[in-house]
Automatic annotation (TrEMBL):
A GO molecular function held by the record: hydrolase activity, acting on carbon-nitrogen (but not peptide) bonds
Pfam families for the chain: Amidohydro_1
Transmembrane portions of the chain: none
InterPro entries: Amidohydro-rel (IPR006680), Metal-dep_hydrolase_composite (IPR011059), Metal_Hydrolase (IPR032466), Metallo-dep_Hydrolase (IPR051781)
PANTHER family, per the entry: ALPHA-D-RIBOSE 1-METHYLPHOSPHONATE 5-TRIPHOSPHATE DIPHOSPHATASE
Protein name per the record: Organophopsphate acid anhydrase
Residues covered by the Amidohydrolase-related domain: 64-416
Top-level division of the source organism's lineage: Bacteria
Protein's organism: Polymorphospora rubra
Amino acid sequence: MTAADHPADLVVRGVTVVDVEAGVHRPARDVWVADGRITRIVPTAGADGQPPAAARIVDGSGRYLIPGLFDCHVHIAFNGFLGVESDFRRTLKQMLVHGVTQAVDFFTAGGHFPGSAADRVRDDVNAGRFLGPWLLTSYGCLNAPGGFCSCSVGDAASVVVTMDDVREQIDRITAANPDFVKIVYDDVFGTLPNLTPDLLAALIDEAHRRGYRAAVHIATVDDASVAVDCGADIIGHGVIEPMPPELLARMADAGTILIPTLASYESRSLPRWRIALPPAAPPDSVAQYQRQRKSIYEIKEQIDDYAEAYRQACANLNPLLDAGVTVVAGSDAGTWYTFPGDALHRELAIYAEQAVAPARVLRMATIDAARAFHLADRFGTVTEGKEANLVLLGADPLADIAAVREIDAVVLRGRLLDLDALRADITEPYETLPTEVDEEVCSPHHLRTSVH
């Protein structure tokens, strides 16, 4: 069989493929890509391994090829530029330059109506009309009147008061064809209104009846326990109290997915002067975060509370894994000081700091995430037949997960991206001025120890 029998647009030649499922290297491989998919993986020295003359060749020698990363908890417009379409688009580019080729959006303010800017971005990206990671989104956020989402974004959140509201609000959310439904069950230690357990159960049941999975924002052990009892499919944050073994067992038995968002907890536990900004941080995003941080979080009590929340959420990670709970990587990127893409790299580093092996950490951001979101037939491994979302690294991620920062190339749907051009786009000023924080609605007291 000759190269003519296997056309290729792109060949990564002589690369070490990282088998994320087995946690091993497959050295000296040529990875062929055509029509956006991986078509062949062959030994570089093989008799039938000569690439077609027309293929673009990427030198993979001394490098490591991994599947594109998942960030399973992001907000593509939650950094103060709510409803600005140029911001949605730039956020997606930020993720790409960090090797994030699939992302799960946990509520984009103003984006849960058909035809909205966020609606168009998701559809444009997934149809290949605009550059960005494959995107799943909840669009909306369901909560009690004056609850956490309402406090954060006002009328963009959906409010549920009675059982009669359940179907109406699920109608409203699902009209935009989301990929899942997001619900907040968190009273922020008694400072905000919350749904009742009966309303939470009814919302989850109604979502399930229509074929949607339910992701629930929680904070405490009681929050998580009620959410699991009510049938939550996904827990959107790490729990900030010690998790009892019986809760861990119930989550494992139910197949509940948990997304730790430890990078978000950490960012809130540090004063501004200790937060390292990524090289490609958009300057106006930084300025907006600084304004929000000053008005909301630059308070010693807040920082101390978050430090304890971060410590405990970290302490729960290994018990979750040991109990067999499905844990997938997600950073809460797009909220305060959690920059898209860079936040996922920090999230993975935190897992490693909790003594999770690099191979396991890499799985949590690739094949485990793909399976959790029913995308394993398309993404999550470097395998023939899957979509060619790939990241070429200059260092070995099985030796040190920090290697995910050593990105030499990103391939998206079979296309080799121009990372320099993307970085230049990211640092361009916004088309629209940022909104200011409403300190009457979102007071420091109301936002204690909560993340999105």
